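Step 1: inspect the first sequence and its tokens.
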Amino acid sequence: MNPGVSSNKICSPRVLARILTLGLLLCAGSGCVSRRLVIRSDPPGALVELDGRQVGQTPFSTDFTYYGTREVKLSMPGYETLTVQQPIRTPWYQVFPLEFVSDNLLPFRVTDRRDFMYRLQRRNEALDEQDQLLQRARGFRSQSQVGP
């Protein structure tokens, strides 16, 4: 053993701090799960409400954080409004405790993209005319009940 060299040099606080900093930098730049929800409709251009909030028109895409059931509501003039309780299942690599590894420690990015396609049904024009007639009749009824 060399008299001028200390055996504690390898574990000195400076060396440990550098190793920890390097390890944190490597972990910070690695591993990440990107979740993307894509909603399409036939015909395109339908108004999208996601969980009760108007969010845009189809084709629509957004990032999401949590898995589970989402309420998707599509509406468009001349078409029946479509409301769907859409389940989004959790993939195997996002189940505890594997989620910690996939979210933080993988050396690459994982993209979980969920595409949903909905077909809107044309509204029956005869029903539209009936609805308009009923609306007008209700309006006349309410006006007559108010009086002069």
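Step 2: inspect the second sequence and its tokens, then contrast the two.
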Amino acid sequence: RAIELNPNYATAYNFYRIHRIAMGRPEEAVALAKRAEELEPLSLIISAIAGRNLYHVRQYDQAIEQLRGVIDRDANFPQAHLYLGWAYEQKGRFEEAIAEFQKGSSLSGGEPTMVGALGHAYAVSGQRDRAQSVLVELKQLMKRRYVAPLEIAVIYIGLGDQEQAFEWLEKAYQDHSHWLIWLKVDPRFDSIHGDVRYRDLRRRMGLPP
């Protein structure tokens, strides 16, 4: 409706693409992200989210190129470092991914999403002790501020501990964690797709099969 009222409102395209990608409509999401960027080419967040969109549709090389461009414009924009780290991780470039997550965490003052991403990267790169240390850090942080349960879950997924992963995913569901909308499309969840609990969670959320 917002787009009908103002076809040049970039933010509406940007948010609408979130719905499209979460619902498994990647082609539409990419087109919407592109349109938002055309309308607001100087917006760092819109450009960064266009890169995140490419990550979600598994076009990792294009995502890396897009996000490097954002960082070239502003090296202190934490979200671009987060999304770039995700793309590096899926390419198996773990050292670079970890460096991006560390940078994003530093710039954001230890924002839990950055810390959770770092813990997951440690886990999938075989640095299990460091991943466990991040789990302890986040659980301690929970006593002082809000930490989305999903950030704990992704580390357990990286460690291959599906029992703990689903325990924390259920907490995220009960908590109405907005990060769960990416359950279908985030590659970090690929390893649990075959579990009946994953399918049940997706059904309860109303995500398409």
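Step 3: confirm your contrast with the notes below.
The mean pLDDT is 95. Residues 94-108 form the longest helix (15 residues).
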